[in-house]
Design goal:
By secondary structure, the protein is an alpha+beta fold. Helix content is about 20%, strand content about 45%.
């Protein structure tokens, strides 16, 4: 009987230890983070890296917010820290460089960047490598036979040679979504594309911003050139902010709404006063 009691207590102790160990291991399990990075260069403007952190949790892809990412410039065996960026609620972050000269290329004139995440209480650490070469888009507006064109040349700044066979997208910048003019424009033997701009595109004071885009190239990343062109159709100003309309604020109430109701009010009160006066006269008589 005593041996049975000892065996039973021993079994309960082993079971408790097993359950505690399993629970601790389950809590210690962390999900793996996946990092994405894209190099973006805007001609005569900024250079930056678009970063994103996500993870697969319980079979679903989720954005990893408040993840601190460290950006390094890799030059040979040297690792140079450029700075840090923290992801927002959508798991996205942007790290802006002062200019491309603030980082160093390797012996092949290739820029090597590493994005590192050390991990936290919920996610494991991760890293992402990014390599690209320096290229420019030289774009301008030209007029041929009274037709407006945008011409753009893609140049490899490492070798000062044109880049042939790359696809450039031409579009007009808009507030919410760009207006695509032509998507597939392959650079010719001179590294150039020539795209006609349709007439009648509206713009403030007749000005439109035309973007020439090399999108997410494996070798050169994303490069944008913006041409400001005064060839659009001026937008007609139809705002009624300073006019007296039914939908204006109280200080801009239409005059007829101020005059006519007040005249009716005075007329009604005049009739009431006249009737009361006559009632007094009748009562005295």
């Amino acid at each position: 009987m005593r041996n049975q009691m000892i065996t039973r207590h021993f079994f309960l102790v082993v079971l408790s230890v097993f359950l505690c160990t399993s629970s601790f291991a389950q809590k210690a399990k962390k999900d793996k983070v996946r990092l994405k990075a894209n190099y973006v260069k805007i001609m005569n403007a900024e250079v930056y890296f678009d970063l994103q952190a996500s993870a697969r949790v319980d079979g679903e892809n989720v954005d990893v917010s408040k993840a601190e990412l460290v950006i390094f410039n890799i030059v040979g065996d040297e690792q140079i820290e450029l700075g840090k960026a923290t992801t927002n609620m959508e798991g996205k972050a942007r790290f802006t460089l002062k200019d491309l000269s603030s980082i160093k290329p390797d012996s092949t004139n290739t820029y090597n960047i590493e994005i590192s995440f050390d991990g936290n209480e919920s996610f494991k650490g991760a890293s992402k490598s990014l390599s690209f070469k320096n290229a420019n888009i030289e774009a301008k507006l030209v007029t041929i036979d009274s037709i407006n064109y945008v011409t753009a040349t893609l140049v490899n700044k490492t070798t000062d040679s044109v880049i042939v066979g790359q696809l450039l997208k031409v579009q007009v910048l808009r507030l919410f979504k760009s207006l695509l003019i032509k998507e597939f424009n392959e650079t010719d033997e001179n590294g150039t594309v020539l795209v006609s701009i349709p007439e009648g595109i509206p713009g403030v004071d007749g000005n439109i911003a035309i973007e020439v885009l090399l999108n997410d190239s494996d070798e050169f990343g994303t490069i944008k050139a913006i041409v400001n062109a005064p060839i659009g159709t001026p937008i007609v100003h139809e705002s009624t902010f300073d006019e007296r309309t039914m939908w204006s604020p109280r200080s801009k109430t239409p005059l007829f709404l101020l005059i006519f109701p007040n005249l009716l009010t005075f007329a009604i009160w005049g009739i009431i006063i006249y009737l009361i006066t006559n009632l007094f006269k009748i009562s005295k008589s």
